[in-house]
Amino acid sequence: LRGVLDTLNCDIGASECHGMLCGVLCGGPQFDRDIWLRHLSAREDLTLFESGEAEAVIEELVNHTRNQLDRNDLTFALLLPEDDRALDERARAFAHWCRGFLSGFGLSGIADLRVLGEDARGFLEDVERFGSLAIPEGDDEGDERAFTELTEFTRIGVLIVRDDIIATEDAANA
Questions:
Q1: DSSP readout, 9-20?
Q2: Separation CA 32–CA 115 (nearest Å)
Q3: How many CB atoms lie within 10 A of CB 80?
Q4: How many other C-beta atoms are found inside a 10 Å radius of the C-beta of residue 93?
Q5: Residue 34 to residues 38, 45, 49, 78, 155: CA-CA distances in angstroms?
Q6: Which residues are CB-contacts of 157 (< 8 A; sequence separation ≥ 6)?
Q7: Residue 31 DSSP SS3
Q8: Helix or strand or coil: residue 21?
Q9: Please, which pLDDT band fits residue 138 given cuts at 50, 70 and 90?
Q10: DSSP state, 140?
Q11: Report field, pTM of the whole predicted structure over 0.85
């Protein structure tokens, strides 16, 4: 994904891209790939995304992420650097993921957050804070444990937001 984003001169990394996609997908079933790609790439012309490797990678990312979010088996995972990477690099990517998630959720068109339950609204406030966390220096074991807890909290929070949106839509369609 990083290579495709670089080739297409996108200013964001893979983690932020994935966060943005998750935010858009959590906002409801009206996913508009073109709106997401325009926001992602900061360009109106999307022809670079419509052929070859770029199209394949983007479609795979969308399908994989959507499948993870739609399943009820808790397989959803944030796209972050591997655990063997330095903690500061992973923490920076996590902050970018959080900013991307909020950006994507804003794109989804949810105008009134009161449709969400209290837990989901609180989670969105937490994600906003996570997007500006101080990045730890070094690889302290306590920092590593805290990072793992934050990412797990975020992973579950995304699923809570998704479930709230689905429940709201189901109630509106009943």
A1: T-SS-HHHHHHH
A2: 21
A3: 22
A4: 21
A5: 6, 10, 10, 22, 25
A6: 119, 120, 123, 126, 127
A7: coil
A8: helix
A9: low
A10: -
A11: yes
87 and 143 Cβ atoms separated by less than 8 Å: yes
Question: By the 8 A CB rule, do 137 and 55 touch?
Answer: no
Q: What distance separates the 2 farthest-apart alpha carbons in the chain?
A: 53
Q: Cα(131)–Cα(124) distance, rounded to whole angstroms?
A: 11
Structure tokens that stand for 65 in this block: 């992420």
For residue 114, what are its two tokens?
């009161």
CA distance 10 to 102: 18
At residue 141, the 3 state secondary structure works out as: helix
Is residue 98 within 8 Å of 131, Cβ to Cβ? yes
pLDDT tens sequence across 19-74 = 999 999 998 777 888 888 888 888 888 887 777 888 888 889 999 999 999 887 78
Q: CA distances (Å), 48 to each of 20, 108, 129, in order?
A: 19, 23, 34
The contacts found for 83-86 with CB under 8 angstroms, 24 or more apart, are 86/139
Grade residue 169 by pLDDT with cuts at 50, 70 and 90.
confident
Tokens of 95: 């902050």
